[in-house]
Amino acid sequence: MDLTAALATHRLVAIVRGDDPDAALRTVLTLVEEGIELVEVSLSGKDALSVIERARHALGPDHPLGAGTVLTAEDARAAHRAGADFAVTPGLGDGVTTAQELGLPVLAGVLTPTEIIAARAMGVAALKVFPIAQSGGAAYLKALRGPFTDAPFVPVGGVDEAAARACLAAGAVAVGVGSPLIGDAADGGSIAALRERARLFRAVVAEGENL
């Protein structure tokens, strides 16, 4: 898949991490039903690989599905076997290189200018600026865009509704949203409430398309 283009089109990555695999699967499928096209299942969640496998079966072969928290080469291989078609990492390492060798585009975790330069040299699809909320938020993202004017930044970490608006206004190609969107749905919480939050974030992204 062309992850860079998908990020620019959809502008939102939902990050699912839960302690209840069945609830996590329901969460993934509900997000897709609500029109959130890019969903990442974090490998730090319980039985995450089985969630990816089951989601892939339910969604079919052509729907984008990511594996998150890909740290090691084995993480990348396991995600690929489970049916993920893109990988998300918290930093740079063997997970990035192995995923790319397997044909999985990577949204790679960076924070500093040095890491951005290294990630771009590795040929990653996009740059996950993480953790953004603890690192200056949209103001930091705007500062990074000074020397890296064309970099596809995706801020992640503490991105709530207000931060999503601010980061999109500051030039983010997309935002990655975890608990402010997912809430407790992946642990067995309300799916109806998840649907409401999904619609809220889709509206925020739609506003951002006009920026």
Automatic annotation (TrEMBL):
<comment type="subunit">
    <text>Homotrimer.</text>
</comment>
<comment type="similarity">
    <text>Belongs to the KHG/KDPG aldolase family.</text>
</comment>
<dbReference type="Pfam" id="PF01081">
    <property type="entry name" value="Aldolase"/>
</dbReference>
<keyword id="KW-0456">Lyase</keyword>
<comment type="pathway">
    <text>Carbohydrate acid metabolism.</text>
</comment>
<dbReference type="InterPro" id="IPR000887">
    <property type="entry name" value="Aldlse_KDPG_KHG"/>
</dbReference>
<protein>
    <submittedName>
        <fullName>Bifunctional 4-hydroxy-2-oxoglutarate aldolase/2-dehydro-3-deoxy-phosphogluconate aldolase</fullName>
    </submittedName>
</protein>
<dbReference type="InterPro" id="IPR013785">
    <property type="entry name" value="Aldolase_TIM"/>
</dbReference>
<keyword id="KW-0119">Carbohydrate metabolism</keyword>
